[in-house]
Design goal:
alpha+beta, twelve-stranded mixed sheet, 12 strands
Length: about 210
């Protein structure tokens, strides 16, 4: 009897896993992210860009505010963006430059988080494999997807249980992007420039 009960338990467990179709998994992920919007988002990001090479960064977003800590060709920088103002800190010369906010590498990185939105509507989704802790999904852009900036294919990993995205890899406009190590608890202090956090730095207002 115990053996039969164990087999039945395994059978129903398998059925519950099959009940989650790839589309349902992604829809649940998007729903979960939507519930955390007010808490912001933080992620690590690797971008391989022709000529420039690989840019590594950690990005925090909360409302209209963004903070990026990045590294390219051995050089590090920290940027804070809020409204039309950007504060960019260079550790090499210990200077903070205040500029008018404009589209640049940093803002492009921050906007890449939007790739997690609309996956279920704009892509055909299939299950590549799964482990005890995650689903590995392949996403192919639908013919009816009119978003010119949307990558043709994406590899998405979603955590079982929480339905949080674990990573997303894609290639668009010759740039290879990987987003990983995501979190959803960002504080106001993390995305707000504070001169006290950069002791001794020279602040230059270039606006």
């Amino acid at each position: 009897m115990r053996r039969i009960l164990a087999l039945l338990s395994a059978f129903f467990l398998a059925l519950s896993a099959f009940a989650q179709t790839p589309g349902e998994i992604v829809a649940k992920m998007e729903e979960t992210i939507g519930k955390t919007d007010t808490n912001g988002m933080v992620m690590s990001m690797d971008m391989k860009i022709p000529i420039l090479g690989t840019v590594t960064s950690r990005v925090w977003t909360l409302g209209e505010k963004t903070r990026i800590e990045g590294k390219i060709k051995g050089e590090k920088w920290v940027s804070f963006m809020d409204g039309d103002t950007e504060w960019q800190y260079s550790p090499e010369d210990n200077k903070v430059r205040i500029k008018h906010y404009k589209l640049n590498l940093g803002t492009t990185e921050a906007s890449n988080a939007k790739m997690f939105d609309g996956v279920s509507d704009g892509y055909d989704i299939s299950l590549d494999k799964e482990t005890a802790s995650a689903w590995f999904l392949q996403c192919k852009k639908k013919k009816g997807n009119k978003d010119k900036d949307a990558p043709k294919t994406m590899d998405l990993v979603v955590a079982k249980g929480s339905f949080y995205p674990l990573s997303l890899s894609a290639k668009a406009s010759g740039i290879t992007i990987k987003m990983y190590d995501l979190g959803f608890d960002v504080t106001e202090n993390q995305v707000t420039f504070n001169p006290a956090d950069f002791p001794g730095a020279t602040i230059i207002d270039e606006r």
